Protein: Nucleoside hydrolase
Organism: Actinomycetospora chibensis
Amino acid sequence: MAPLIVDTDPGVDDAYALALAAHAPEVDLRAVTAVFGNVDLPTTTTNARRLLGMLGRGDVPLGVGADRPLIHPTTGRAADVHGDDGLGGVAERFGPLGPEPAGRALDVIARVLGTSTEPVVLAAIGPLTDVALLLATRPDLAERIGRLVVMGGSVGVGGNVSPAAEFNVWSDPEAARRVLVEERVPTTLVPLDLTHEVTVDRAWLDALAASGPVGEALAATRTVYARGEGLGEDRVPIHDAVALLEAIVPGTLATVPLEVEVDTSLGPGRGTVHADRRGRAPGGRTVDVALPDGTDVDAVRAALLERLGTHM
C-alpha cells in the first residue's frame, strides 16, 4: 500500500475526500494535516478530528498547519459554500471527535516522510501554504514525495472565487506558485475544468445517504453546499474527492503535461493559473494537468459512489 498524507481544509468536499482515503485498500493513510481555507484553522482542525473519529481512524496522526497565507493576508473564506461550520451546517452529524492534534503539520509531515521506506503520496486539497513551507524549510525531504496531487486552479473554464481564479490557489497564490512553478516534485493538478464535469445529482446523493451513517452524514451537507456552489440544485461538485481518487488510483484521470504559471499580482487576476498549451520549453517544469478530454467522467462518478457507499 502506498503511504498517503492528506493536507486539507475541511470543507464539505474535503469530507468526501477523507472518507475515500480512510479505508482505501490501495493506500496507507499515515497522516492528516489541517490548514486554513474554507473556514478558519480552529474549525478545519476540529472538522478533521470529527471526520477521523467518524471514519474510525483515530490512529491517524493529525497535524495543525498554517492559519494564514505566506505573505498577503486574506480574510476570504467559503462559509457561503460550506456553511459557518465548514460541513454544510450539519457538523454535529460527524463524530465522535478523533485524536487530539499530534503537533505542527510540518513536523507531522516531516516525520512521515523521514521514516517511510517507500515514496509517499501527498494529497493537497486546500491552500498550498503547508506544502510550500515544507518544501522551503525541508528541501531534503522533497525526494521522499513520490507524487503530489493538488486540487486547485482552473485552466480554461473560469474560476469559482473570481472570474478566473479557483479558491485553493487564490487563498495563497505565492504558496501555489512555489509548489507548482518553482519546485520539481512530480505533481498532478486537478482543476475545476475536470471537477465541474464530475458532478453528482440527487439520485447519486440519495443512494449515498442510504448506504449507512457515513454516507448519510456526507449527503446531509448537500443543501448549503449545492446552493453555495451555484451549479444548480441537481449538480453538486465534490472537487477534492475527485483529486483523492486519482491519488489513490493513479491513472483514473487523463492528464496532459503542461507548464503553468500562477498570477501573484495584487490585481484582478490574482490567483489565476495559466497553462501554456504551446508545447514544453526545453528545461521547463511541467505538471500533469487532469482534464475532461480522455477522462471517463461517468466511471469516476460511479467509482466515487461505490467506494463511499461501502464504508461502515
